[in-house]
Each structure stands twice: as structure tokens, then as C-alpha cells.
Amino acid sequence: AQRVTQPEKLLSVFKGAPVELKCNYSYSGSPELFWYVQYSRQRLQLLLRHISRESIKGFTADLNKGETSFHLKKPFAQEEDSAMYYCALRGNSGGSNYKLTFGKGTLLTVNP
Amino acid sequence: DTGVSQNPRHKITKRGQNVTFRCDPISEHNRLYWYRQTLGQGPEFLTYFQNEAQLEKSRLLSDRFSAERPKGSFSTLEIQRTEQGDSAMYLCASTQDGTGESETQYFGPGTRLLVL
Description:
The structure holds two protein chains of two kinds.
Chain A: E1 3-5, E2 10-14, E3 19-21, E4 24-26, E5 32-38, E6 45-49, E7 60-61, E8 72-74, E9 83-90, E10 100-102, E11 106-111
Parallel strand pairs in A: 2-11
Antiparallel strand pairs in A: 1-4, 3-8, 5-6, 5-9, 7-8, 9-10, 9-11
Chain B: E1 5-7, E2 10-13, E3 19-24, E4 31-37, E5 44-50, E6 53-57, E7 65-68, E8 75-79, E9 88-95, E10 106-107, E11 111-115
Parallel strand pairs in B: 2-11
Antiparallel strand pairs in B: 1-3, 3-8, 4-5, 4-9, 5-6, 7-8, 9-10, 9-11
């Protein structure tokens, strides 16, 4: 079974402070990991995926297979980063190749 | 084409009634997914279509739920004899197979269902 755990439901930081949203996963194979974001009154959208190894809006995330983690980081948070963040996993075995398994999400609030 | 669309956006129904939701994916996207999201949870996978074929169904999809994608374009999700536990946000997503963007699922705005 595949599982994604986001231990923090709420995270509050001040503008300019570093932010780290934690994500741990459980999967027997080599998964693909994603971060999705939902801004207020907007639809869920992809922020970044581990295979791209890119930085989007200043956010980065590194897949650590040893610790089965995919934490999202940004060195200097901005108020516009306030949103709900979901970590998601896509397996690569059998018939579950395409579905996403999401964590419960972390609500990030960046205070001025 | 402005993205995945879903109708209706909100639905209030009485317990025991049937409801049907519609999803229109991005043009030429051949994969379509349905997810359900309850309060405080992330989206949970319900079912998935490749063109018109329904290839996977979650155990969450009881026999009261049925999904179709008759022409490989739009999809419908029907819930028969609704129960209060069916109250949730129902999300649709689509992807295009065979391109570098195949991993990216594009989500619709969702249909929020309230069963009284």
C-alpha cells in the first residue's frame, strides 16, 4: 500500500523566514513525488515534481529515498505563499501507475 | 480551452436522492480521474479512465457509485441513494498520455456535494 504523511496540519511563519513543509511516504517501489498547492478560492495545481529537480516560486524539494521523505523548502517565505500544500505520490507498479495518493495537507500561513 | 471544468459547482440534495456530476477534461487529454475530498483530508482516488475505458476503481467506490466516459471525452459520476457520508468535494483531473507532461494531473474546480 502507498501512503503519504504530512505531520503538520498548520504551519505559520513570518515573511522572510525559512519554511519547510514535511512529507514522508511509504511505498515499496520507486515512486514519483509531487507537491500540489491550492491558493484561496483556486483549484489544486501542481507546484513541482521530484523528477524535474527544478525550483518553482523559490520552492525546492529533494527526494530522500533513505528517509522516504520529500520535504518542501523555501529560504525566504512571502505572504503570497500562504496556501494549502499537498504532497502526493504516484506509484509505478501494476495497475496503479497513474493515480495520485495525497497527504492530508499543510496549511501554510505567512504573516507580514 | 481554459482547463478542466466541472458542473455543477455545488449540489445540495436530500438523503436517498440520486445525483450526477459532469467533468469536461482538457481537450485531447485521454486520461481522466475522479477524486473525493472530505474535510481535513487530501483528495482520495476514486476511479480512472483511459479514453472511454474505466481501468481502475478504488474500494471507496461502492456499488452506489458509477462513472462513465462514453465517448472518451467528458465523464459523469453518479451517486445513487445518497447518504450523508457522501458529502464531500468531488474533483476531476485529466492528463495527456505520451508527452513530457503526462505526470501532471490538471484539476477542475470540483463539485461540492451536501447531503441533508
